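Example record for the data management plan.
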Amino acid sequence: MIIAVSGNIGAGKTTLVNRLAKHFNARAELEAVRDNPYLNDFYQDMARWAFPLQIYFLSHRFEQGLRITSHTGTVIQDRTIYEDAHIFAHNLFHSGFLSQRDYQNYSHLYETMISLVPPPDLIIYLKGSITTLQQRIRQRHSSQDQQRKHENTIPDGYLENLNQCYDKWIQSFSLSPIFTIDIDLVDLAEKGSFQKLLEDIVPYFPSLS
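Corresponding structural encoding:
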């Protein structure tokens, strides 16, 4: 069983991944954010660092996919390899931060990799407004998470572009069922909301009932 948690920066993916992993006694596969050597530089100069950053994420996501393939138990995954390409690299290209040459190079590598990576059995998509995302990013920064200090400078326009990319991707993605949660309306940190989520995803996994 593979459950992926998807969503924009600040949506609460990592928190939910860890909570689901604990509940299901599952393996948590987290995103390669901590100790990422490019992130701080990227937010200072996106055009200079966009390509190496995306290659870094893609290679780590592919490595993660291979681990998941060889794992026999339940896995809870923080983002998917599809989002790297169809959300983040796509946005950087159309925003002018990735050249056409680099984007084509990246896309060829991505297409070569995805046939070897299994799609999730379910994607939980955390959808949120820019106001909610920025509020959570500030909360994360104020909690002294120095590994994510770069996020404090993310402009609203960048997050909005990512939200638009997510909306288009969610509408067209067909490899996995998608369960959407509006984080403007639901706080998964609340016990009742988390329990409701568990009840809602049971139909996707008959063996859980």
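Summary line stored alongside the record: The helical segments are 13-24, 39-44, 46-70, 81-94, 100-114, 130-142, 156-172, 191-201.
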